Amino acid sequence: MAAPLKALQQRLDQALNERVFSAYQLYGECRGKELHLWGGETAYWPGASAVTSGTYFDIGSITKVVATTSLLALEVDAGGLDLSRPVSHFIGELSADPLGDRTLEQLLGHYSGLVWWYPLHKTLKKGETLTQWCEREAAKLVAGPVEEKSVYSDVDFWLLTLVAEDLCGPLGEAFKTRIAKPLELAETVYGPLKSHAHVAATEYRSKRKQPCWGDVFDENAAALGGICGHAGLFSTARGLAPFCREWLLALKGESEWLSQPTAQRFIARSPKVKGDWGLGWDLKSAFGSSCGTLFSEKSFGHLGYPGCSLWIDPEHEAFLIFNSNRVHPLRVDERIREWRPEIHDKAMQYWGIQ
Fold it and tell me: H helices of the chain, where?
């Protein structure tokens, strides 16, 4: 085993031993050179099994770019979607409240002035739709003026979900027909997943007296039925590789799925507000980026709260998907913040980038 690969494997094994997570997968490519590692067990729980390359992980907010952001990018290409349009243009029920004034660009760029999170799962009434809930709770979702600063927000993507469904139809079907099928994402699906043997567990829930194990971790996504624009997808690491490849091809003008101008627009920093966000995509920050120090400044990606990440580097023609279940058994363990950048650096060193 080459020294950089051995060093990477040793650090991943150490993370398992220190219980940073019980399970991981790593898949990446750099100019055609593949990296594929996996290890651990699906849970610290009876019934757990060894992780394989085919084990599914709850990828959390990576759903935002794989599903919602990509659907809206495709709409820009296909129908000339105007991102300066307000939400009220698409969702008439929200025209009379402050949410309806927010534009798609503000929501995608996370400078809409909305709160970063809200306990929807505690306030959603039986039979109530997301639109009805947003209309009822609108005043509580506004934190400040738009274009003041970028604040990452799930609420932004709740509104974008409504818009995406207005344009494309039910989110689950739109994801299948416009993203999963053309890109052959056979191992990226909305849950629930039934077999414990093929999915990594996430957080322990006292009401169930067991962890979430094939059910979505995000409580708000669960309250909305599990098929959402902000969370809900499960995937293997290798299963997201075609998605990453296609965005790299799009940026080179070689994709039939997404145009080069649209791809470039979605990964460009907004001139309206300081921050490290494109449209839906997280961009590499100058200091302390989760993708480490060796991914280029042009890199873009996204994190998933349960412990997953996806980063794409067009300068090095590279991408890396890192799946883990760091919220198992509890979300309070945030040591992944220290480990993730180093894992990305060691992957780059394996590819000869120093």
Answer: 3-17, 63, 70-79, 104-108, 120-123, 130-137, 154-168, 171-175, 181-183, 219-223, 241-251, 260-266, 336-350
